[in-house]
Every structure is written in C-alpha cells, then in structure tokens.
Amino acid sequence: TKEFDALKLHTLAAGAAVSLAFAQGGASTHRLSAVTLAGSAAGCLLALPGLRAWGAETCLVLVATLGLLAGALFADGRARAAIAALAALSLALLPAAPRLFPIEPFPSLGKIVIPRDDPDSPRVFSRWGATGRIDIHELRDVRLRLPAPARLMLVSQDGSAPTFLLRLEEPDPRRADFTENLPFAYAHWLRPGGDTLVIGAGG
C-alpha cells in the first residue's frame, strides 16, 4: 500500500548494510554470516513478545528504524547525518505507527474484512498477540429474535476463524436460559458444573 512506501528507504538501508559488511569482511566472512544468522534468530524470538507489547505496526517501524541505523554505520559525512536524522524521525513517529501504517486483513477467500470505521459494525476491541490480531465488532445491523435483549458481537483472528458472541443486556442469568437448547450446551448436559476449555478464537 501507499502507506508502506515510506519504509522502502529503511529496507534499502538495511540491505545495503548487510552487503557492505560482507564486502568489507574479507577473511571474516564466516563470522559475519554467523552474526547475521544469530541476529535473524534473535529477531524471530523478540517478535513474539514485541507483537504482544506494541502491535505489528509499531514493531514494523521499529525494525525499519534499526535498518536505517545499520545503514548509517557504513555512510560517510552528510549521508550519515541525513540517515541518522531520518532514523530519529522514525523513532518520533512510533506512537503514531498504528494510525500511519494500519495493517488490515487482506481481502481473500474466507476472510472477513470489516472497515475500522464502519458505522454498522464498529470495532469495539482490537489487540495483537504473538500469532496475530483479535478483533471484535458489534453487528448493529443484525436483528435477533431472542427472549432477552442481546448485542451480537463478531470475533475474528486476522480476518478469519469467525465466532459470534451474544452479550445479554440484562445481568440476570435466567435471561440466558435459551442457551440450554443449543448444541454447544451438550457437554454441560453430560457433566453439569464441569470446567470449560475454549481452544482458539474459532471455538
């Protein structure tokens, strides 16, 4: 997308840094290769807690900024100062990364893509985890015939594995008696009061 065109220079700087490092490595090429592989492995491990803490958009800008700083190590004079200034600007933009570089599910077969600002299906919750992003939309334009007033929510993981949630407006648990006749309640018929394990956003 056009938003990510701004990060192309960051990627170019990172690639140039690796190429220049190998070009100047001489007999130490094998050590540089080991360091490169170790850095790649560390990046894979750090990505898991990074996604949970900051989200993919912020992690993307942070990694791009590290690429710029790597390129500055091999630059001279004015070029180094310009790259360092661009890296500082990138760091300053980190808090705004989710708004500047939004990541949405790619429209494809089986994907549920609901615009962030859809008035009929507003996004009421969104959070990144180690394996993807969980979104919850309220489906305001869907009417349900239930014995108790309820709000219908749609949970998706990266635009897939859709799960519907009913949020009863009244806290009285007796208003949820109709759920006893659903297929999902069979396990509770067999073992009333047993513990429940939910696996994945898709149930």
Give a brief rundown of this model.
This protein has helices spanning 8-23, 29-54, 56-72, 77-92, 97-100, 186-190, and strands at 123-128, 133-138, 150-157, 160-168.
SSE topology:
Blueprint: H1 8-23, H2 29-54, H3 56-72, H4 77-92, H5 97-100, E1 123-128, E2 133-138, E3 150-157, E4 160-168, H6 186-190
Antiparallel strand pairs: 1-2, 2-3, 3-4
Would you mind describing this structure in some detail?
- The protein is of the alpha+beta class and 203 residues long.
- The chain is 41% helix and 14% strand.
- A hairpin with a 2-residue loop joins strand 3 and strand 4.
- Helix 1 packs across helix 3 and helix 2 runs antiparallel to helix 3.
- The two termini are 33 Å apart.
